[in-house]
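From the methods appendix. Each design record in this collection lists the tokenized structure first, followed by the designed amino acid sequence. Records were kept in a plain field format so they could be parsed without special tools. The example shown here is representative of the layout used throughout.

RECORD:
FOLD TOKENS (276 positions):
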């Protein structure tokens, strides 16, 4: 394969479906080797097969990103199967919404667990490989940029009524992005955040049009948005529509290519022109 990301090893959480899958396929189509993750082995397998069909290679690391040792397992899979870690995309996530007076501790903590604590543990595990690898490269005078992209949301940047836990988790990810950009600049790791507005996926599908239930661990969480709410959101978007997973993946891809090697600690809002 010959692409912008030839031979780069990319780890993408939540890449069995939606935006994560589109990211995995986009990076693979540019030559990256992908470690796919999903809660469900069959769904993860579909992404692995799609990547093989694109002519690249992928392996699945199935599991819940919120389990304490997941980060270690994810990084070890990348090193064992593909020999390194070049790109880490913290994408896995879901919404479990309520207004503050109805939000339980369990709900709030679940949102922090998946959107803040899991990315933290994954990146801490990645440090075990990235720091010595970067030091060895620097000693040889080799400049090798690695990339971290944390997926946030417009809700994490500006808040959204009914999303106390989700917005808190996604906002914390922005702080982590800026801190890690400062800690890892010396290792030539670009750490950025891509925040989405409204992207059409399972998470944001119309209620009633086949409402999906996401099985997260032992919880079943209903996905979907009321059609009136979708209409209202699309009216606020200057481009007049929600984005596709492929368009969302395009924004993440920009943060993974060599042309973005001098961009770090930034938040890119991919929202069809939506500015709050
Ligand atoms: P999606 O279609 O529901 O896909 C979410 C993916 O994350 C699925 O593959 C799911 O696995 C996985 N996942 C969820 N919890 C997980 C866990 N604990 N461990 C491992 N994998 C887990 O949703 P999406 O819209 O693509 O969302 C992707 C990211 O974009 C999320 O972080 C979301 O918050 C963010 N985002 C989305 C929008 C939007 O408008 N869609 C806007 C802003 C931000 P299963 O397939 O097994 O359920």
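DESIGN:
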């Amino acid at each position: 394969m010959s692409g912008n990301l030839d031979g780069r090893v990319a780890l993408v959480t939540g890449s069995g479906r939606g935006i994560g899958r589109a990211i995995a396929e986009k990076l693979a189509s540019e030559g990256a080797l992908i470690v796919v993750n999903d809660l469900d082995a069959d769904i993860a397998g579909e992404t692995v097969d799609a990547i093989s069909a694109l002519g690249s290679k992928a392996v699945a690391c199935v599991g819940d990103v919120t389990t304490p040792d997941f980060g270690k397992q994810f990084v070890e899979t990348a090193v064992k199967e593909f020999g390194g870690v070049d790109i880490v995309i913290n994408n896995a996530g879901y919404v479990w919404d309520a207004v503050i007076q109805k939000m339980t501790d369990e709900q709030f903590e679940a949102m922090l667990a998946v959107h803040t604590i899991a990315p933290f543990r994954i990146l801490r595990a990645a440090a075990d490989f990235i720091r010595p690898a970067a030091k060895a490269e620097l000693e040889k005078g080799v400049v090798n940029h690695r990339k971290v992209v944390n997926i946030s949301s417009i809700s994490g940047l500006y808040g959204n009524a009914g999303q106390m836990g989700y917005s808190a988790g996604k906002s914390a990810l922005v702080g982590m992005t800026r801190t890690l950009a400062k800690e890892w600049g010396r290792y030539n790791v670009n750490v950025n955040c891509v925040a989405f507005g409204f992207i059409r996926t399972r998470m944001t599908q119309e209620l009633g049009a086949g409402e999906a239930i996401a099985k997260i661990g032992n919880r079943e969480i209903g996905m979907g948005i009321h059609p009136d709410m979708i209409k209202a959101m699309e009216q606020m978007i200057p481009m007049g529509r929600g984005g596709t997973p492929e368009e969302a993946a395009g924004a993440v891809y920009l943060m993974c290519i060599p042309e973005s090697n001098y961009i770090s600690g930034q938040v890119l809002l991919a929202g069809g022109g939506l500015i709050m």
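APPENDIX NOTE: Strands lie at 9-12, 33-36, 58-60, 87-90, 146-153, 189-196, 213-216, 219-222, 267-270.
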